[in-house]
Amino acid sequence: MIVLAALLALQGFAADAGEAPKSAAQTVAQAAESNGGSDLSELEKKLQVWKGRWGYNDGKFGCETRNTSGDSAVDSVGCQALMACLSPEEERLNAIAQGAGDDKTRGSEMQAIVAKAQPCIAEKRHQGLIALAQLRNFGGAGK
């Protein structure tokens, strides 16, 4: 496993990776099966507990949950937001990880890329939680 180092204190994210993000269909099915809460503020609190890592595993750029929120659909929202916003930078992140220089320098360079992605990540997380709350409130799940 190629580890894209550098712990990211930014919004509770850490750098590394495990599995590929779930498809939208898998996420919807997972949310519908979950009996977690459907209140947006409750979901936001759960996502604050979630910690994820991104990077490469078996040659695939992906995300894994390192500290679960206790709600697998919320965990999925966290990973999907990371991947949606960091996937466009995958080539650049990989080049840095494979490049010359010490771990600290490469980690700082990767942190700068992730810091720039924070507005995107925050927006995708918010959109994902809204969709999850709507699915649970109007899709019949969690009742």
Task: Please state how the strands of the largest beta sheet are arranged side by side.
Answer: 1-2-3
The gyration radius over C-alpha positions equals 15 Å
In terms of structural class, how would the helical and strand content be classed? alpha+beta
- Tell me about the biggest sheet? 3 strands, mixed
Q: Give the helix proportion (percent range).
A: 55-70%
Instruction: Give the SSE string.
Output: EHHEEHHH
Shape: elongated
- CA distance, first residue to last residue: 41 Å
Low-confidence stretches: 1-21
Number of helices: 5
How many strand units? 3
| Percent range for β-strand residues | 5-15%
Average pLDDT:
77
Protein described:
There is one protein chain. This protein is an alpha+beta fold and 143 residues long. 56% of the residues lie in helices and 13% in strands. The chain has helices at residues 24-33, 40-49, 72-86, 90-98, 103-138, and strands at 13-15, 51-57, 60-67. It has a three-stranded mixed sheet with strand order 1-2-3. Strand 2 (51-57) and strand 3 (60-67) form a beta hairpin. The longest helix is centred in the last third of the chain and has 36 residues, at 103-138.
